[in-house]
Write a structure and sequence with these properties.
Elements lengths: L4 E3 L15 E5 L5 E6 L9 E2 L8 H19 L1
Antiparallel strand pairs: 1-2, 2-3, 3-4
Amino acid sequence: MTEPFPVAEAEAKPCPFCGDRRMTVYQGDTYRWRVAVCNSCGAQAPDVRCTIGEGQTREQALADANKRAIDVWNERA
């Protein structure tokens, strides 16, 4: 299991339910998925799949998936 990825408040739009900007990206149901979760009320954005592109390391793929999870959060908030 990977460590949770805390998100800087400046990167995240406010939660549409509680208004808090503090959120964390967690591993989803399996290591291939990431999900952004509000630290205050637990609201979640849709899961994002972690895919390793050609020439990419696993760490780079995880970083990209974490960034995409934040982007998905910001699109729904």
